[in-house]
Specification:
Helices cover 35% and strands 19% of the residues.
Length: 268
């Protein structure tokens, strides 16, 4: 499925960054939101510092009231301060290191710009500072990397925490079940028209993977290892057993995910 961004609903335009790779899919989705007829826009995740991309965002955004960040990862945040300085606005983020100006962001905040209303939903797990943004007027939620438009996201130890991530999926699922979030506008990949179905899949997938990891750990510990199995060797051995359906190029990321799952299992 090809993805190139575009306009969605009455308030959103996705400007796709030219940084595609195995982890970013087609590239980073930069979202430009504006209330119909309003003067100023809100820009979410300006993405990488690529001049042509920043020019494209500026052309779509016009006057910008504020830049918001879903989380600190480089492919979402690198150009945030640079772009905000260019447009004469601030950057609001959960992590103070990524802000420009004194205003932060926290769960429950409401950001209002020229009639546009954005509700901040804390969704930690992919990273400690991950946020989602609910747009009630569109029944849409912008999820950053918490839910992707294609495939599933990585919860990478140690910043990524599986317990927090499962709770965040449950929170998004509740919004979808209540029809407050019907569609998902992700940080990578295409728009999802059926939020509830995808969140059902995400929750089931995580539970299934966790059960597979738990079974792999039990099998490895029960198997004879004359030379002994070093603690730091366990995650890679689990990856080799559980992630056989994943391209080995991605096994490094899978190992970080396994470490997060092992930490979660150890804490139960």
């Amino acid at each position: 499925m090809s993805w190139a961004g575009g306009s969605f609903g009455s308030r959103a335009q996705c400007v796709l960054a030219p940084n595609p790779n195995l982890m970013t899919l087609d590239g980073t989705n930069t979202w430009v939101l504006r209330e119909p007829g309003a003067r100023r826009s809100v820009v979410i995740d300006p993405g990488p510092s690529i001049p042509s991309h920043l020019d494209a965002i500026a052309a779509a955004a016009g006057e910008v009231g504020v830049v918001l960040l879903t989380h600190h990862h480089h492919d979402h945040s690198e150009a945030a301060k640079e772009f905000a300085e260019r447009m004469g606005c601030g950057v609001r983020a959960l992590d103070p290191d990524y802000r420009l100006g004194s205003e932060g962001l926290a769960d429950g905040d409401v950001v209002s710009v020229d009639g546009l209303e954005i509700h901040v939903v804390g969704t930690p797990g992919h990273t400690a500072d991950s946020l989602s943004f609910l747009l009630p007027a569109e029944a849409a939620v912008l999820t950053g990397d918490t839910v992707l438009g294609r495939g599933t996201t990585v919860v990478a130890h140690p910043d990524g925490r599986l317990g927090a991530y499962l709770s965040s999926l449950d929170r998004l699922h509740a919004l979808a079940l209540a029809h407050e979030a019907v569609t998902i506008w992700p940080g990578h990949g295409p728009v999802i028209d059926d939020a509830l179905a995808v969140l059902d899949y995400y929750v089931a997938h995580r539970r299934e993977r966790l059960a597979q990891v738990e079974a792999a750990v039990a099998a490895l510990r029960d198997a004879p290892h004359p030379e002994g199995l070093a603690a730091d060797e366990l995650p890679r051995r689990v990856v080799e057993m559980v992630y056989q359906d994943v391209d080995p190029v991605l096994w490094g990321a899978a190992e970080l995910s396994v470490r997060a799952q092992l930490a979660y299992l150890a804490s139960r």
